[in-house]
Amino acid sequence: MTAAFWGLAVVSAASAVAVFVVDSMARATFALLTSLLAVGVAFLLIDLHYLGVLIILMMVMEMLIMAVFMIMFMMNPAGLTPMRMVHNTRIAGLVAGGVFVLLAAGALLTPWPRRRGRPPADPTHALGLSIMGPKMLVMMVIGVAILATMISTVVLATARGRYDPPPDRRTGEGER
Amino acid sequence: MSEAVPYGIVVAFPVALAGFTVVAAVFDSVVGAGWSWRAAGGPLREAARLLVQQRRRTLLPDTLLLRAGVCGLLVAAVLAGVVLPLGERPVADPPVGVVWFNAMEVCVWGAIWLTGWGTNSCYPLVGGYRFVAQGLAYELPHMFALITVGLGAGSLRVGEVVAAQSGLWFVVWMPVAFAVYLVSAAAMAFWGPMDRPVGSDIAGGVRGELSGPDRLVFQVGRYALLVVAAAAAVPFFLGGGAGPVLPAWAWTAIKTAAVLAGLIWAAHRLPAVRMDRFTQVSWLVLIPASLLQLLVVAVVVL
After folding, report:
1. Of B65, B107, B132, the CB nearest to A27
2. pLDDT level of residue B206 (50, 70, 90 thresholds)
3. Residue B241: which domain range?
4. Smaller CB count within 10 Å for chain B: N or C?
5. Is the dihedral of CA B113, B215, B65, B200 positive or negative?
């Protein structure tokens, strides 16, 4: 368990470093994905099964969508010539170093509580209750609302999107 | 997961997956040749040829990403399969097996995109992007079909999903979810009418530049993914290993073979879904249908 955690931690940190070392956008994206997948597997280690698997599922999707957009917008779409993954290094280094010191100090200086009792049977359920608590109903309604918004946005967007329905299937509309 | 997994299952799983993969490839070849059983040896001959074929290299490929993608397809298919019971129990039965199955299917997107990108060639890249778009379009109905199963069973553990069907199979009272599952699973496995990511209109798409062992591993992974997608319909909708007389593993195999044969037959009978219309099919037909099915199941469960 401990060995697995440290193994995942090393993989996660090493591939996070690789994001800035490699010279191709695709490699950077998938290095970041490797790092996040290691975090997802680490969640499985502490029996947060649902959250861990969900992290894996969502991160793969997100990184692919990110890859599509990043490559779409980058100055060298073909990715044939190597490119640097860092720019504005001085300020970025200052900000990153500051955030790292802040987080590390927080992690080391916080008086972590000692474990009382035993872990619950379903840690995901307990975690959800402790985060959302009495606002669970609101959160669930918002979740459904966001989903409905997403679907209707896409439906509206595709109706007049790049690929219009062919003229023979367009009824009730005049000539364009 | 607490109790030890019998060694028999651990040995039987790869054997069963490999066997079904070969059978799927052979049957696909036979149906593709117009039910000519002489084509049955085709896939094996092709495998032998690819094993000894020299790799054709494209200009400046990203070999690391290419290999990761080609092998990742097979790895994701195998990992998706470990939660499916072979008869009584699966290799691993995590409490969220249904979500795990879906997560591994989504990992296939990464594998396919990497394969398309890594070769540094136009048509494979187009195929890779096609598959990401197709995956995004069909993931939501796929997920809703799987959620319907979880809702009907009251659990995301595959074993409990099977147990919940001891009275009535899910396919009987959630037929729409089953249909949506089959369509979207074919899309996730880029199979049948949804095989445009490897379509002939873009010169073979993702696998267009693959040759030698790379192509062999890719093809094996593709058929393995199809087998796993078909096999998953059995515990999710068709009652798992339930059936008279024969033992559970035999029923699982028979049902898997039936779904697999249906998918392969449909691939040769149905016209391809045009890439400019596939989102419409999914978002305007499959998502509303699967949401209504989810509502019906939710009301019944309540």
Report:
1. B65
2. confident
3. 7-301
4. C
5. negative
- The most distant pair of C-alpha atoms in chain A lies apart, rounded to whole Å, by 72
Please indicate if any CB of chain A lies within 8 Å of the CB of B71.
no
ipTM entry: 0.84
pLDDT tens digit string along B143-162?
Answer: 999 999 888 888 888 888 88
Distance, CA of B102 to CA of B143 (rounded, Å): 7
**Interface touch B280/A158, C-beta < 8 Å:** yes
The total of structural domains in chain B comes to 1
Position B3 confidence tier, pLDDT thresholds 50, 70, 90? low
Cβ <8 Å between A158 and B283: yes
Could you tell me if residue B126 is inside a domain? yes
Instruction: Output DSSP code: residue B89.
Output: B
Report the amino acid identity of residue B235: P
Residue B215 near residue B48 (C-beta atoms within 8 A): no
Q: What is the per-residue pLDDT for A158?
A: 62
In a domain, B2, yes or no: no
Q: Looking at the domain assignment, is residue B1 inside a domain?
A: no
- Nearest-CA distance A157 → chain B (Å): 11
| B117 to A151: CB separation less than 8 angstroms, yes or no | no
State the best of A60, A63, A146 to mutate against chain B, taking most chain B CBs within 10 Å: A60
Q: How many Cβ atoms sit within 10 Å of the Cβ of residue A112?
A: 7
> Which pLDDT tens digit goes with each residue over B28-77?
888 888 787 777 788 888 888 888 888 888 887 888 888 899 999 999 99
Whether B66 is covered by a domain: the verdict is: yes
